[in-house]
Design a protein that fits this description.
This protein is mainly α. The chain has 5 helices and no strands. Helix content is about 80%, strand content about 0%. Helix 2 crosses helix 3 and helix 3 runs antiparallel to helix 4.
Length: about 100
């Protein structure tokens, strides 16, 4: 309840309801976000944190792009910040996609 938001409606509401219904998804996402934020802030395990948070960021952007277009600016800025950090450390990450 730190930043109150209105409850989502339509497909966004169904999607969030399904995630909440699993019983584990929201806690897992939040723990991942907190651990990755702590790693980035403390400048420890930054490469691992950027890899772990990437799917979370992709899903945040996809959620706002396809299900709830309002408020797309913040997720896009988050994705651009992540892309910049990965680009800045590209020597580490290029091995992940090379054959």
């Amino acid at each position: 309840n730190f930043l109150p938001i209105p409850p989502p409606s339509g497909q966004a509401g169904f999607f969030l309801g399904a995630l909440a219904g699993t019983g584990y998804m929201f806690p897992m996402i939040k723990i991942t976000e907190i651990l990755c934020a702590a790693a980035l802030i403390s400048n420890r395990y930054v490469n691992l944190a950027l890899v772990l948070i990437a799917p979370v960021i992709v899903n945040i952007v996809a959620f706002h792009l396809f299900l709830s277009p309002m408020g797309l600016l913040l997720p896009l800025s988050l994705a651009l910040s992540h892309a910049y950090l990965v680009w800045n450390r590209w020597e580490v990450y290029k091995n992940l996609i090379e054959q």
